[in-house]
Specification:
This protein has twelve helices and twelve strands. With about 300 residues, it is of the alpha/beta class.
Amino acid sequence: MEFRQLRTLLAIAETRNFTRAAERVHLTQAAVSAQVKALEMETGVPLFARVNKKVFLTEAGELLVRKAERLLKAHDEALLALKELGDAEKGRLRIGTASTMASNDQLPTILAELKREYPKAQVTVRRATSAEIVAQILQNDLDIGLVSLPVEANDIRAEVLQRDRLVAIMQPDHALAHQRSVSPTQLAAESLILGEQGGNTRRLIDLFFAKSGVRPEVIMELGSMISIKRMVEHGLGLSILPRSSVREEIRVGKLLALPIRGFKDNWELGLVTLKSDHVPPLQRAFKQLCKKYFD
């Protein structure tokens, strides 16, 4: 039983398709089939059932997948730890961010300071939703992420960096602007511009409306907080955002923010990684800088 065979096994289990698994592990479909056959001969039991070109794990396959995940995780951590003993400055850090606010404000400063401390480090940043970032960390495609909380994944460690109140934002001359707060019913009657689905902030908003028994009219779903604010500034609708994200627009009079009656859940920005006893120096330094610059 070889590590390359186990990686192929996991790829098939995740994609449920030999062709897509072959693309993921950079092998031909014939090579993937040969590795599965070798595993099944060695274990003496079938690992997959094939029904109408679809692939399903057998009970033995599910057991081996669970064992393989732990083995490969330990293998990768051991190799990474050994590599870092040689030269910590040449480490790699793959960051995912679901927060446009953090990407515009704190992240550039954090990365600049990190680069000064680790000038030879390979640091990359990807933009994705919170759910996508968590999935990529679990697949070892990312090392760390800035996401909206909560995150429900057993193998993920989450640390809160920032908490804020979600508020309704609108033009200062909007018909609701004279009120001290707005109700879910009033918001549902307006044209709303919200963040894209898949993020936890949007999930909190949708859950709030569902619990309130109203169905809002969402006319736009955007992935950028800056785009959402600009749309609201131009009178195209209302939105719900963390108050800190519109602090400057409120100060200069471009937007107005009101509390939402009954909305008790706070928006939380968190730092997520795989649960592991080994934390690479580069990742540890990034975490420390995040805690320094986020309030």
